[in-house]
Every structure is written in structure tokens, then in C-alpha cells.
Write a structure and sequence with these properties.
single chain; about 375 residues; alpha+beta; three-stranded antiparallel sheet; 10 strands; globular
Length: about 375
């Protein structure tokens, strides 16, 4: 299912679930016994019982792949929701003032400030009392965190350090119990575990069961910080200029034929490597594979102006054409990465005024054999 926000001419706003949610016994993330109909779908959740919101008291609706129902919701939807860092940041921005204009929404939709970092950074900064134990590389890393506002900006080194640190932290918290199974643990479950600690306090899993002492969360943070600095210097050297987030976190839009290097060189199937900020936990998302190569993000961005639809804005990661020889192939990519938009002509008059070409389809003509 997918959530869709809407507004109408009477001033109502709301959020509705699009698509059907099957009624079934228990969750459907694993294969069930098919010898009988016990786990069969029993129809769909009635429309009036789907997750929805109409004119909420806070004055806005919002969604970012987060859980949108309470724990007592009677129907099973999914076992997998994004950790609420992105929705928390959206709501944080929506509470900044009462009225927003187009420029505000452009800033919000491209925002790369991390609510995850906002929660975790104070725990890192507690290391200030252990500066005499740190190497010069570790002090350089700590200084970057001290001056950081949690913006995953591509031109900063703190975002790189944070990604290395959060990865080391998750493994130090869970790897001792799970051992080889840790590598099979979905990243979302690791993130949820850390989110729970940051919001509700540590549990017994924090201790490293492979040591004779009982570690607390601050000790695990210290260990993870040192390991993160060791890993980043091993990969990119001690010169902090090489730690810049955009230098290691890049997006390449790849055509299937572009995997053949010679073909890509001749026909330029793939895009250039764009430096990107953000991460999986920012409103403007850029998640990545091992090695920090971006593999997921917003498939489109829209800002709809319901007072004047012709003043709406849009952008997509690629271009209006999927044909490499077209001038519109990958034509929007750079503007997309840079957080820009295009005017989105809506009315017939605006479409005619902005059109560059006319496509004529004649169903009456047939090619001769």
C-alpha cells in the first residue's frame, strides 16, 4: 500500500491509503503452510478502515515510508517500515512556522539534515572528557563532530565519519550476540534497535558478551568512534580532505548496456558520477551500497501549487527520454542532484506556450510490407 496526501478546493487536507491491504491471519513475510486455507487472504480491509487522516488538528499531513497506524490497529499491514528519522525531521520543519510558501517546500523536500544524527551526536560529544586518550586522527574527527549541525552536506567530512561510526556502533551492539548472523540482519532492524536505545535507553544487549567486564553505552560509543576513525583513515588516508562526504558518496545513473565499459564510452549510456549528500535517514534520501555508491533515492520530486497549477514544480533523476541519443536523455540529472526544479505546465494554454515539439500520431496510416 501507499499513502497519498491530497487537498481540495474547499480547503480540506488529508491522507489516504492507496491500494488494497489483504485481510489475513498473521503477517505475510514468510512462507506459510498451504495445506489448508488458514493463511489465505480473506478479502481486503474495507476502505473506511484503511489508514487515513482528514483535517488533523496540527494543520498538516505527512508521510515518509513510516508506520502510520498505532500498535492496536486491527489489521496487519507490513513488518517493514522506515525508522522514523525522515518523518521526524519533516514534522520538525513543519513546526517551524504556521505558513509556508513554495521556497519553504523546496528547502524541505531537498533537506539533508539528519534527525538520526541529532539523536546520536550528543553521545559522541561526551567523548570530550577523554581527549587525552585520542590520537591526532581521532582528534581531527572529533573536531569535525564538534562543529557539525547534523547536515549531511556533500562538502563536509562529518557525514562520512557519522556513517562509518553508525555502522561500527551497530556491529558493536549486536555483532557479539549474533556473530555470523549479523551480516544477514536487515539494516532497518539494526537502525530500529539503535533508535530504541536513543529514545528509551540501553538494554542488556549493549554489553559485549565476549569480554569479562560489563560495558555501558558510552563505552561502546567510544570503541565505535575509534574503530570508525581507523576504518576511514585506512580507506581514505589521514588527510581529512579525502574524507569529504561527496567525494566518497556518489550517484551514477546506469543504463543496462552501460555495464559494458566500451559501449558506455562510445555511446555514453551512463551518467557522470554525481557527488551527493544525504543518506537513507534524511528527508532527501540517498541510500547506498557497500562502498557508498548510491543505489536508491527519490524517483521524482513535485511541489503542487493548488492556487495556480501552472506554478507547480517538478524534477526527475533522469530525463524525459530513455533513449540515449535523445537530447532529453539524462537531461534533468544534474538539476535533480543540485536540488533544482522545472516549471510544470498544467493548463492547455501553458502547455502550448512552453511546448518545443509536437508529436503527431496517425492511427490511419500503415507501413507497407
Amino acid at each position: 500500500s501507499q499513502n497519498f496526501a491530497y487537498a481540495d478546493i474547499d480547503g480540506n487536507i488529508g491522507l489516504n491509503t492507496g491500494g488494497g491491504i489483504p485481510v489475513r491471519k498473521e503477517q505475510g513475510s514468510v512462507i506459510r503452510n498451504g495445506e489448508n486455507d488458514l493463511f489465505d487472504w480473506k478479502g481486503y480491509v474495507p476502505f473506511d478502515q484503511l489508514p487515513s487522516s482528514l483535517n488533523p488538528v496540527n494543520g498538516y499531513t505527512s508521510s515518509a515510508n513510516n508506520k502510520t497506524v498505532a500498535d492496536d490497529y486491527p489489521y496487519y499491514i507490513s513488518y517493514k517500515f522506515y525508522v522514523p528519522y525522515r518523518i521526524d525531521r519533516i514534522r520538525q520543519m513543519l513546526e517551524e512556522k504556521d505558513k509556508f510558501d513554495t521556497e519553504d517546500f523546496k528547502r524541505m523536500i531537498t533537506d539533508q539534515n539528519s534527525a538520526y544524527a541529532q539523536l546520536l551526536l550528543p553521545h559522541i560529544l561526551r567523548l570530550t572528557g577523554r581527549m587525552d586518550e585520542l590520537s591526532q586522527d581521532e582528534k581531527n574527527a572529533f573536531n569535525a563532530f564538534e562543529n557539525w549541525n547534523c547536515d549531511m552536506n556533500k562538502d563536509l567530512i562529518a557525514p562520512s565519519l557519522f556513517e562509518f561510526f553508525s555502522s561500527a556502533l551497530a556491529k558493536n551492539l549486536l555483532g557479539d550476540e549474533l556473530e555470523d548472523l549479523y551480516d544477514d540482519l536487515p539494516a532497518s532492524l539494526r537502525d530500529y534497535y539503535i533508535y530504541r536505545i536513543l529514545n528509551y535507553g540501553p538494554d542488556k544487549w549493549v554489553d559485549d558478551i565476549k569480554t569479562s567486564v560489563v560495558e555501558d553505552f558510552d563505552q561502546i560509543v567510544f570503541r565505535s568512534f575509534r574503530e570508525a576513525v581507523k576504518e576511514i583513515t585506512s580507506a581514505y588516508g589521514s588527510d581529512t580532505a579525502g574524507w569529504r562526504w561527496g567525494a566518497i558518496h556518489k550517484l551514477v545513473l546506469e543504463h543496462p548496456l552501460g555495464s559494458v565499459r566500451l559501449l558506455d564510452r562510445i555511446f555514453k549510456f551512463n551518467s557522470p558520477a554525481f557527488e551527493t549528500g544525504g543518506s537513507r535517514h534524511t528527508v532527501c534520501p540517498y541510500s547506498y551500497q557497500p562502498g557508498f555508491r548510491v543505489d536508491n533515492g527519490a524517483s521524482e520530486r513535485h511541489i503542487f501549487n493548488t492556487a495556480d497549477w501552472d506554478e507547480s514544480l517538478t524534477v526527475i533523476p533522469t530525463g524525459a527520454s530513455g533513449i540515449p541519443a535523445s537530447e532529453f536523455y539524462l537531461s534533468q540529472s544534474r538539476r535533480y542532484v543540485e536540488g533544482g526544479f522545472y516549471k510544470d505546465a498544467f493548463s492547455e494554454k501553458a502547455v502550448k506556450e512552453t511546448a518545443k515539439y509536437r508529436l503527431v500520431l496517425n492511427p490511419g496510416s500503415q507501413a507497407e510490407n
